[in-house]
Amino acid sequence: MSPAPRTLTAHAHVYPLKEAFGISRGVKSTAHTVIVRIEQNGFAGRGECVPYSRYGENVDQTLVLIQDNSTAIERGASRQELMRLMPPGAARNAIDCALWDLEAKTTQIPVFDQKRHERAKITTAYTIPYGPADHMERIAARNAFRPLLKLKLGSSNDLNRLYRVAAAAEGARLIVDANEGWSLPEFESLIDDLVACNVSMVEQPLPARSDETLVAGVYPFHVCADESCHDRNSLSSVIGRYDMINIKLDKTGGLTEAVELKAEAREAGLEIMVGCMVSGSLAIAPACYIAQDADLVDLDGPLFLARDIGDGIEFHESHMSLPKRALWG
């Protein structure tokens, strides 16, 4: 007996933000995502992705790519077949995560029960967006109670930003994301100051294709690859340069590849960070699956929204609940 047919639909979704969110490359006041829904036998699975212009993606292009592959999905393509059909990226991520959700809903076996160990609580970093030093200082002061703060840096006047944030949140552990914004001399000139401010990790200090000068293990803090590592195909290029990789489902092209990337990175001796874009809880939910035993978690995207999607993840300060089944998984 052949499996029941599937129906795939996709649509764009816009989330207004509470306030503008900046990194060194730009500022935005809304988050634009694409939501995929796959129905079969009366069950529906959903996935959400965030097309990212840094990787040549936009909402319209993502919708076209999803539509171009919808026939194969509706005819029953598996998650493994999907990885051969589509390149890594936002479009594949939304479909892959919808297939995970559909399988969980159909089998009545929650995704999070597949880990076969006690569900761990997740504590996320909270991001201080890039902006004027006094503005970043005020945000740090408001969030000084949080155990882990992530500063967006990567431009001129970073020393002032760094010291003002560190002074405003003395009790918090700090990590820094430069978003490819420094040259090697700029990065090395900041090392003593980063140490003085108790920074424990620096994420993507150099441009992704100009990081061959980095050497893992030589800095007094961890250095994490973000833009330099997307999936398993790029893993070999960061080994020996970085201490850690940031796994984002929109880069890997879904949870299926993310699980494999995490396993291979661990085997290579790399630590694991799980990150996200500014997005709704539906995009964050699958990342929680690999975040439970990660070394660092940065899944605070929904905290910046004026309105989240329904049945969203619950945040208690920086502590996250696992997703409700009505949301995903």
Give the key terms:
329 residues, alpha/beta, Enolase-like, domain 1, TIM Barrel, 2 domains, 8-stranded parallel beta sheet, 3-stranded antiparallel beta sheet, 13 helices, 14 strands, 23% strand
Q: Give the tally of β-strands.
A: 14
CATH C-level of the largest domain: Alpha Beta
What order do the strands of the largest sheet run in, or round the barrel if closed?
A: 5-6-7-8-9-10-11-12
Q: How many individual domains?
A: 2
Give me the secondary-structure category: alpha/beta
| CATH topology-level name of the largest domain | TIM Barrel
What profile does the largest beta sheet have?
8 strands, parallel
H-E order: EEEHHHHEEHEHEHHEEHEHHEHHEEE
**Shape descriptor:** globular
Radius of gyration computed on alpha carbons: 20 Å
CATH homology superfamily name of the largest domain: Enolase-like C-terminal domain
Strand content: 15-25%
Q: In percent, how helical is the residue content? A: 25-40%
Q: Give average pLDDT, whole number.
A: 95
Tell me about this structure.
- The protein is α/β, with parallel strands linked by helices.
- The protein folds into two domains: 7-113, Enolase-like, N-terminal domain (Enolase-like, domain 1), CATH 3.30.390; 117-320, Enolase-like C-terminal domain (TIM Barrel, Alpha-Beta Barrel).
- 32% of the residues lie in helices and 23% in strands.
- The strands form three sheets. It has an eight-stranded parallel β-sheet.
- A hairpin with a 2-residue loop joins β13 (315-316) and β14 (319-320).
- α1 crosses α4.
